[in-house]
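Data availability (excerpt). The following record was deposited with the supplementary files.
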Amino acid sequence: MSPKLPSHLFPWLILLTFASFYFFSSFLSLSTFSSSSSSSSPTSQSLSISNTCNLFRGHWVSDPNHTPLYDQTCPFHRNAWNCLRNERQNMTLINSWRWVPRNCHLPRIDPVRFLGMMKNTNIGFVGDSLNENFLASFLCILSVADKGAKKWKKKGAWRGAYFPKFNVTVAYHRAVLLSRYQWQPKQSEAGVKDGSEGFYRVDVDVPADDWAKIAGFYDVLVFNTGHWWNRDKFPKEKPLVFYKAGQPIVPPLGMLDGLKVVLTNMVAYIQKEFPGNTLKFWRLQSPRHFYGGDWNQNGSCLFNKPLEEDEEQRS
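Predicted structure:
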């Protein structure tokens, strides 16, 4: 299994992407924000930052007036993920939690203002289901500002949306290891594939196909990987074998060493192939929080409140 991160990192790992987008949009020129959008904006709050402000240190508070910006009709949710439509228990309590950072006022995201500031911009997410989960909620929030939003699956995107009112595209490209990987069945001495055993070949210097052709399209990119780098996904009987320049890396790498090499090579690829003015973020791994088993062992998330700082260690 992959090493667990301390649970106190969980809140700021979730907030990192939101905060990054907020700062980016705040620095853009307001000249792109049309007067019609301004007049329809529900709020005009701004981020108040003091010298001691730390967005990633703070606490969760339960606010009964804090409800989702969207409802169960959002078209960008998967059916199984739509907790509102599926009537998950205690959703009112779950949705009441609000992050309060230390020594600064963090206003709620304003989808109209955000899309107005990001006008004529494309935002991409590349990685595993952590980025995909974030995207689903993010698209639902943004769709409040543009009822004409349409599903978008181009450039190899797994899912996404186009917001015609603002000419903004937001999409997700599935690449769980970031690098390209493929199954190599075991061959007998006679050269006949039996398909029973083998390995996963990982080309550390080649991006996964789903995001190999997006250079120059996105203005902002958020990358992540992490949860697939464990024996749960790739058991010893079907290991990862790492290749570079078409040849196996010798001596063979363990899984975590392979992760380091993949990250090093993917960063080099991005720096070489992507325009310098593309804003890039790396999102970290969050701790697992399944109850009663892992994600594929009938585990589920039964919590109605955020994890306490020592709760991960106690479980």
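Summary of structural features: The radius of gyration is 21 Å.
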